[in-house]
Each structure stands twice: as C-alpha cells, then as structure tokens.
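Hey,
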Amino acid sequence: MVMSQAEAASDQEGYLQALGPLRVLVEDDNLTEIMVVGPDMVYVESHGRILLTDVRFKDQEHLLKVIDLIVSAVGRRIDTRQPLCDARLLDGSRVNAVVPPVAIDGPILTIRKFAKERLRITDLIHFGTITEAAASFLQASVLARANILISGGTGAGKTTLLNICSGFIPPDERIVTVEDAAELQLHQEHVCRLESRPPDVRGEGRIGIRELVINALRMRPDRIVVGEVRGGEALDMLQAMNTGHDGSMTTVHANSPRDSLSRLETQVLMGGIELPSKAIRQQIASAINIVVQLNRLRDGSRRITAISEVVGMEGETISMQDIFLMKAEGADGQGNLKTTLELTGVRPQILDRLFDMGLPLPPEISRLFPDRRGDQVAAVRLPTPPAGPLQRRLG
C-alpha cells in the first residue's frame, strides 16, 4: 500500500513528538551533535563547542522509551541482553545508544546530526576545509577511478567528504554502498544500498560488513563504497579494489595517512587470515591510490590536512608521497586557526592516468606539471559558492 503525502507527514510529526525533549535539539540546524548522559544531562555541540543544555527527561524510564523508539523505528533492538546499538534517526542522523548494565550511570545516547541540505564541494571550500585546487584534484581522481581512502578521527567529517566524493561518480555507473547504519546520501539513480544487521533475540541472523562486501562483488558493481572499514572486511575491500572494482572508496579511523595504512594492515589480520606482513602491504600498495586525511583542529574546525598518494613498495615498506599539505598560519583575534592547503611540488603518479583519460586538472597542477605528451588540458571550473555566509557545519 502506497502511503500518501499527508500520511507520511503525519507519521513524521508523530515520530518527532515521540522524541520528547530531544525534538527541539533534533530540529536545530545549528547543532552537529547531541549527547545525552542520563536523564538529567544533555550536551550539544554547536560550532565546535560542547555545551550543557537545560533539556531534561522525566526520568530514566522516559529516556529508555525514547531510545527504544529510535532503534525500533529502523528495525534494531536494545535491551539488557544487547545493550549496545548503532541506529539512525528517520532523517539519516547517526545514533549510538548504550543502556545498563553496560552504561553504569544510566542510558547514554549520542546523535551525530547531518545537514538537511546536502553539502557540496563548494561548501567545503567556503568553510576552508579544502582549497579549490585540492577539490579539483579529488574530483579528477574520482573520475579517473582512483581508489580513495578517507582517514580521520571521530567527528572529523569523513562521512561528509565520502558523500561529496561519491557525488563525483558519473551517473551512468552502478554503485553498491555497504554500511553499518545507512547514512550515505548518494544522489545518483543507480545505487544499491546494503546495511548490516545485528543478531536477533536468539543471537542469530547477524549479517556483518564483511558478508555484505563479499555479496557486493556478486552484484556487478562499477564501484563499491564502504562507509567505514573496521575489521576483517578490509581484506575483502582491498581484493575488490585489486580485481577490477577500481574507483572504490571507504573511510578509516586514523590520525595520519601513514597511520591509516597501518590500520588497514591490522584490520586485515583481524579477519583471521594468516598472511605475511609483506603480502598484506603489497595488497594495500596496489589497491589504494589516494589517501585524504581529515583532522578536527583545536578550534573545532575540520580541515583536510593532507592528500597523499601511495606509489608502491620499497622493500617491505609502503611508499607514499604528499601531494597537498596543510600549513598553519597562526590564529586570529577570536582564536580561530588560519590554515592553507598547499601543493608540495611532488608530481603525482596518477597524473599519467588523468592525462591519458583527457580529464581536466586544477590550474595550479596544470601549470606545475604540464602534459608533455600533448596539449595541456583545460582547468576544472567549479561552481561559484552561494553568496552570503553559510551556517551549515561539516558533520
């Protein structure tokens, strides 16, 4: 039965009302995070600052009822037997819930909010997260089917950047996404979305990321986009990238490009497959082309601090080179850090692929590394960012 617009609006209103005291925070576009620590302490993050609000729940049972509503609405469950749960709000915002006995002092709820309007690369340029030259390089790399790893800490903006980079994929390609809790917002027409499933009450029926990645390979994908690699699925992702599914993307928690590759190596070992370290590193070196590092700075801003390229192996070590690096330039009177993302002057190996495919390049890269085999290609012209200050934050 098809639901009418009026019925859908009514259901949405009922859902928001059932969120109780959280509703006003969920509907506040200036907030990027809602952090509930028991019924009497509700914190929010606004413009990089964490603040305690005056929002309160009636009691612990009231908070547990709201948590149960959120997780059950997306087919998840949480109770004393399964006290941890990843879920999402109906608007796509990411949710993590923890209840007793694991949460000692009462239920804990964390909501990572996403902007209602989809962020574009021009927004990130406006925020200072990335420069136009670096944005154009990433766009060209996606079009050239480079395998891209986005690295960063919690709340650095990895998912937002993955969404934006995925938006560069041509509309005629078949994309399969794999996530723990669906939060990617791809706007291409041909997208197949897969989401993991926790075990049921009997502890059965779990479908993990690894199984979904393996299944994605049987779905004739042009590209595979994995929301985040955390364990043994890293090996399956690397093998997919090495067996004709180039142009794929994923994210990983790490503090530097070099650390992100070490994390991948550790995650492969977590899969229980005994491989020599050198063999794993060779898989990584041949699979990953570009590593984009995101960091959250001490003033709360999110910045791309490095765009690096994996260039092969030297002995038993993966060889990398930095294409763009962030340069700090102090702070202004309000304590906001001033940074720039500059070209290092190192010639990217992927340029040969870009030249072969006739893809446009940023003016700075075209001038620094002209195509000696023919006419220099034209520069990418990104749309002009909307006029006026933008209030949206990178989530």
